[in-house]
Amino acid sequence: MLLEGSPSNPSQLIDPMQKKVSKIGVMTSGGDSPGMNACIRAVVRTGIYHGLEVFGITRGYAGMIDNDINRMDSRSVANIIQRGGTILKTARCKEFMTKEGRAKAYENLKSHGIDGLVIIGGDGSFKGAQIFSNEFDIPCIGIPGTIDKDIAGTDFTIGFDTAVNTAVEAIDKIRDTADAHDRLFIVEVMGRDAGYIALHSGIGTGAEHILIPEKKTDVEQVLASLQEKEKRKKLVNIVVVAEGDDFGGANDLAKVIKDRIPGFDIRVAILGHIQRGGSPSSMDRLIASRMGYSAVECLLEGKVNVMVGIVNNKMYYTPLDNAVKAKQKISEEWLKIVKILAS
Ligand code: ADP
After folding, report:
1. pLDDT tens, 262-279?
2. For the chain, which domains are there?
3. How far apart are CA 118 and CA 179, in angstroms?
4. Is the confidence at residue 342, as pLDDT, over 90?
5. pLDDT in tens, 127-174
6. CA–CA distance, 139 with 81 (Å, rounded to integer)
7. Could you tell me the distance, in angstroms and rounded to a whole number, from the CA of residue 138 to the centre of ligand 1?
8. Among 36, 92, 94, 117, which is best to mutate for testing ligand 1, by the most ligand atoms less than 8 A from CB?
9. Cα–Cα distance between 316 and 294 in angstroms, integer?
10. Which of 98, 125, 136, 148 to mutate to test the pocket of ligand 1 (most atoms within 8 A of CB)?
């Protein structure tokens, strides 16, 4: 996987002045993703193993501001590793964007004696964490929880693998009915800014074309290819489109194809929020457990404001700043594979 941004040497991320943490808070923030519960469990149990007090903050930054903060013990995370969603709930919180909101959040954390935070979320949540810990003296460790896999400094984000598996399962089913009727299905998957779900699920289901935001869509080329395949009687069943593709969504593409190639019997399927839910895959449970464990270790070692990632199967630490700004690049080779395998 190609990564942009330069990761730091882990030893540079340790603040020697950092006081030892004793009470930590954990929360899920921003978009939810399957595997967040497995991660909460790992944070809580690793913290308790090391003698820390662990607090669950409900609804992310909103719960921090509302003082919805409760002590957790080992039993409070029993039987959740296999559950989708997040027992701590998640939210988006405008008030945290203001200095007054963040000051309120800080006062609440202090009232519980919380001196370290683990934030499971996406780049927006990391941005908030970075600003918060610059203003107030609380080290924050980020864990990438997003189905989109659009964060640099890690090969995996919690929820991505499950979302891809959900999409693959759905597209396989769509293919059966598409095949029965000789229909062309345009399937829209999630990914406003990132095409990874489209790319992985499209390759995994043998899609004819995969349209993603990272690559400018040449609609004339897509039309020409479909026309050429129609001429040589190659059945085309599936085109996968990421919701954020520059040309538009599945409906936009279907309209153009209908207008230009009336011979195709076209249907659109928008997979939507099913991609966010469901029991996490074994892969997501594994990375969530490793990242949750590692985040607590980071706080104990005095690392400040880093995101925990996994690169080449090793734990990897990126300053929250870089995790915010950098995006992963789509490999040109993968796009070539799509073309060759669909010929
Ligand atoms: P995600 O973490 O999934 O990317 P969002 O972008 O919605 O989700 O961010 C989650 C929350 O993080 C926001 O609702 C807000 O409370 C906080 N946040 C995001 N950006 C900032 C910012 N620039 N300053 C302060 N808080 C922020």
Report:
1. 888 999 999 999 999 999
2. 10-159+280-325 (3.40.50.450), 160-276 (3.40.50.460)
3. 47
4. no
5. 999 999 999 989 999 999 999 998 989 999 999 999 999 999 999 999
6. 26
7. 17
8. 92
9. 10
10. 125
Residue nearest to atom 26 of ligand 1 (CA): 128
- Tens digit of each residue's pLDDT (9 = 90 or more) over 59-73: 999 999 999 999 999
Q: Which of 32, 115, 123, 148 is catalytic?
A: 148
Helix (H) or strand (E) holding 45: helix 36-49
- Does this model's pTM top 0.90? My answer is yes
**Per-residue pLDDT, 6:** 43
Distance CA 40, CA 26 (A): 7
Dist. CA 303 → ligand 1 center (Å): 22
15-26 burial string, b = 16+ CB within 10 Å, else e?
A: eeebeebebbbb
Question: Over the stretch 172-222, which tens digit does the pLDDT of each residue have?
Answer: 999 999 998 889 999 999 999 899 999 999 999 999 999 999 999 999 999
Q: CB under 6 Å to ligand 1: residues?
A: 29-31, 61, 92-93, 96-97, 121-125, 127-128, 131, 146
Give residue 317's identity as a one-letter amino acid code.
Y
- State the angle between helix axes of 332-341 and 196-204 in degrees (0 to 180), rounded to the nearest 10: 30
* Dihedral over alpha carbons 199, 205, 209, 214 (to 10 degrees): -10
Ligand 1 mean position to 49 CA, how many Å? Answer: 30
CA dihedral 77, 80, 84, 90 (to 10 degrees): -10
Q: Is 32 a catalytic residue?
A: no
